[in-house]
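Name: Large ribosomal subunit protein bL33m
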Amino acid sequence: MFITNALLKKAKSKYIMVLMESAVSGHKFNAIRERLADKLELLRYDPYIQHESLYKERKKIRSIKSK
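Structure predicted for Large ribosomal subunit protein bL33m:
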């Protein structure tokens, strides 16, 4: 690889936006996490069932330059 190719490469962004989905009802929302972090799993209020439920990261939506 030529040195010019290494100098012209774009730096990857630090954060990404991901789609979170409820394991119970299928309710979805977007969250932001660091690119190098593990996949998100969290407890959050689900408006469909009106209780807390487990949300898991389903897919990456886009990169975000800064938070």
